[in-house]
Amino acid sequence: MSVRKPPLNKANLMLQQEAIDAVRGQTLAPRGHFIDGRSIASDSGDVLDIISPIDGAILTSVAAGSKADMDRAITSARSAFEDGRWSKMAPAQRKKILIKLAELIERDALELAVLGVRDNGTEINMAYKAESLSAAGTFRYYGEAIDKIYGQIAPTANSVLGLIHHAPVGVVGAIVPWNFPLMIGSWKIAPALAAGNSIVLKPAESASLSLLHLAKLASEAGVPDGVFNVVTGKGSVVGEAMGLSMDVDVLVFTGSGATGRRLLEYSARSNLKRCYLELGGKSPNIIFNDAPDLAQAAKVSAAGIFRNSGQVCVAGSRLLVQEDIHDDFVAEMSRHAKDFKVGNPLDLSSQIGAVHSLSELEANLQFVQTAQEEGAQCVAGGKRILSETGGYYMAPTVMSGVKVEDNLHQNEVFGPVLAVTPFKDEADAIRIANSTVYGLSAGVWTSNLSRAHRMIEEIKSGVIHVNTYGGSDLTVPLGGVKQSGNGHDKSLHAMDKYFDLKSAWIQL
Ligand code: NAD
Can you tell me which family this protein belongs to (predicted)? Predict the structure, then answer.
């Protein structure tokens, strides 16, 4: 069901509703795993229904993987790695194939985006750019990079030569979440493949469709069989089997802190595989009274929490506002929250799509209720909407009067719920900003350049924005500190995860 004609006006990257409408209702056949270059059913024959958050209906099913399926995929990845069909291919040849893959992703960009929207609920405009086009860009970037990475000669004594080689690590296991599966998956798959590794990918059980399609495109581009495998199914079954495998060398993960902890345990109980974890956040977005443009700050901050229904790891979910501008700023944020058009994510007119699942929606509403019980006020949203569609939609929600010790201040919602807390001065803002276990992202709005630099230094986060929020580019690394994780995706720094440094001593 590939869409061969470019669905967009390339001059302005505008999607057209007509093109979306042509594919949005297509029946989706049940999907198997992708192992050793072909689609196969689960060993057990079991399947998992995929529910669309757009209307709550069953969309299709994917294989409910077993430990045997995961072992089969890992064996396939291992033999592909050891016989060198990819790992020993000339970097310039790997580059050609990865760039071809980028072109195929662009060819199928609309199909990939619609698949993703149907199983995870992201608004189509965002899915098209942040999933499809960004994935293509990621494969092109790491494909282009791989024949420009050199080894080193160490400055040793004269009579000996110390060589430092970059060796691929072997079999990479990648586990990704349901939000932005294609984008986040590509951040891991592309550099791992570029470096010459084989991969087994485990998508979230509820958002596998676009990644299964990607695996087929990789095969079409010329990635040899066994080099890129996808095993679908539950984290507690196939994810655990991957984590406990003695034959996975490196595990790269994006998801919750709770699962990240499990992966470290699995590693300790098996082969001490290196684990790189990209985890959750509770990111502070700090508005000083000297912000250059408070109206712009409110507009960008609202998008920074509510787009994709707040299901963005770096979402600015804690708004810290200086006391003397607090009431006016919160009123402005509430106005923006109420203005967003929430609706079917396949309609270009919808600015915000669906919450990923019923259980996520219920958890979001529980956060609102607990916050109210702890004394916060709901000044916008706070409820499920459009329930007549059968889908899972929530009104963008602003909760004011949230205290540092409150549940809503300390814990990640991963939904469209903003916690607002006032602060007195710079020291107070820093104290509140650093008062959670997370350290993923932050924002600071001020005209004072010295203050901006102090905040960049003092706020414990992997990413910080000044007078903007949510900027993103493949050339800039993304990673957290504290309990938000320990690895970096994106940029050339991400390559470090997928190489071992191998030292060679040569007596002259
Ligand atoms: P999750 O941890 O529940 O699931 C993530 C993946 O782990 C899924 O594929 C799941 O099947 C798998 N998994 C679950 N249990 C497992 C187990 N026992 N063993 C092995 N694998 C297991 O997270 P989620 O709900 O899918 O995603 C939301 C979380 O991801 C949020 O916390 C969000 O902040 C985080 N996230 C972080 C980033 C980042 O870059 N730091 C980006 C996106 C999302």
Answer: Belongs to the aldehyde dehydrogenase family.
112-128 tens-digit pLDDT: 999 999 999 999 999 99
Ligand 1 site-directed mutation target among 179, 236, 359, most atoms within 8 Å of CB: 179
| Residue 244, CA distances (Å) to 169, 192, 271 in order | 17, 20, 8
Query: How much is the pLDDT for 1?
Result: 44
Split into its structural domains, the chain has a count of: 2
Half-sphere exposure of 224 (CA within 13 A, CB side): 19
pLDDT value of position 10: 47
Report d(CA 365, CA 343) in Å as an integer.
18
Q: If you measure from the C-alpha of residue 178 to the centroid of ligand 1, how many angstroms do you get, rounded to a whole number?
A: 7
For the chain, which ranges sit under pLDDT 70?
1-13
Structure confidence by residue, pLDDT tens digits, 335-365: 999 999 999 999 999 999 999 999 999 999 9
Backbone φ and ψ of 61, nearest 5°? -140, 160
Mean pLDDT for the chain overall: 96
Domain that holds residue 376: 284-472
Q: Copy the structure tokens of residue 385.
A: 């909407």
> In this structure, are 236 and 300 located in the same domain?
no
273 and 315 fall within a common domain: no
Ligand 1 atom with the smallest distance to the CA of 440 is 41
Residue 256 CA, ligand 1 centroid: distance in Å? 4
CA 111, 114, 118, 122 torsion-angle sign = positive
For residue 471, what pLDDT is reported? 84
Token pair for 454 = 């102090």
* Cα–Cα distance measured from residue 127 to residue 130, given in angstroms and rounded to the nearest whole number: 5
The tokens describing 44, both together, are 């057990």
Q: Would you call 111 a catalytic residue per the annotation?
A: no
User: How many angstroms separate the Cα of 378 from the Cα of each of 6, 235, 246, 298, 395?
Assistant: 45, 35, 50, 18, 12
Give the CATH number, domain containing residue 272.
Answer: 3.40.605.10
Q: Which residue has the tokens 């750019």?
A: 129
**Residues 230, 213: contact at Cβ < 8 Å?**
no
Predicted pLDDT at 231: 98
pTM: 0.96
**Cα–Cα distance measured from residue 176 to residue 256, given in angstroms and rounded to the nearest whole number:** 10
What is the pLDDT, as a whole number, of residue 81? 98
